[in-house]
Amino acid sequence: MMQAIVRVRQGVAAALRARRGVFAAAATIVFALDLLVPPLVLSIVRKPFDYFTFNPWLSQLPRYLLASDVVLQSKLDFLPNLALFWFSADSAFGGVDWGFAVTVSDLLRFLLLSILFGLYFALIFHYRHEATTAGWSSKFSRGGGASGALASVLGVSTGGCTVMGCGAPMLPVVGLAFVGLSSGTLALLAELSRVATTLVFIAVTLGVVYFGWLAGGRPMSVDDSNSSNGVAAKQRIAL
Is 21 domain-assigned? Predict the structure, then answer.
């Protein structure tokens, strides 16, 4: 078990060293989509957003966390649902037509999913390159790349987001286009969003482990083999 963990870790480390740009690009794109797709969809299907702000109360957060008169459990219950920033659109009849807020738990979920996808695509590109160099089949990496692209779209489109004015506090992004549905249907979509998000996390994590395991135990590449043969030949000549 420990050997498998070490092998996966070595594969992931090698992919990160070789494909830093791929990791950064994939992670940034997924993170940006998680943040921007919900307000974009709401702006199209409901009303363009006209307001954006960070939570003004955030300046009081350090004092709240250090307050001795607030029990630890209350702080732990409060922090995950703390809104960091939000988009909103004013209603023509007064008040807010819709609002999209990013909470602490939302941001952590976005970051974790972005890192996982960054690792996944870095491993795919690294494994494909090493397979081609060594002259063995890379069909798994081609299929894995397509699966990763599909999973990233699924993860963004089904991921839950905190929405106000849509009949439910949490909705999948695809559910934002159906804001006129009944509250029961919206609640079902919210539950499906949680299930789909969990499945995406599991699938991408397994993909990272699998391709990390392959990359960590890959055969010696052609260049490495030639280099090793050259060193061996020099040693024979010296003898």
Answer: yes
For the chain, how many structural domains are there in total?
1
Gap between the Cα atoms of 56 and 78, Å rounded: 16
Helix axes 104-134, 20-45, angle to 10 degrees: 140
| Domain presence at residue 199 | yes
Q: What residues have CB less than 8 Å from 125, skipping those under 6 apart?
A: 15, 19, 22
Domain region containing 190: 2-50+104-222
Q: Does any domain span residue 65?
A: no
Per-residue pLDDT of the chain (239 residues; tens, 9 = 90+): 788 888 889 989 999 998 999 999 999 998 998 888 888 887 887 788 888 999 999 999 999 999 888 899 999 999 988 889 988 888 777 677 777 888 898 899 889 989 999 999 999 888 887 766 654 445 555 555 556 565 666 566 656 667 765 555 556 666 666 655 556 666 677 777 778 788 888 888 998 998 888 888 754 443 444 444 444 444 443 44
Quick check: 23 and 231 in contact, CB under 8 A? no
pTM reported for the whole predicted model: 0.75
List beta partners, residue 100. 87, 163
161 bridge partner residues: 171
Query: Rounded to an integer, what distance in angstroms lies between the CA atom of residue 103 and that of residue 34?
Result: 13
- CA 213/CA 215 separation, integer angstroms: 6
Q: Is 55 part of a structural domain of the chain?
A: no
Torsion angle of the four alpha carbons 65, 67, 71, 72, in this order, in degrees rounded to the nearest 10: 30
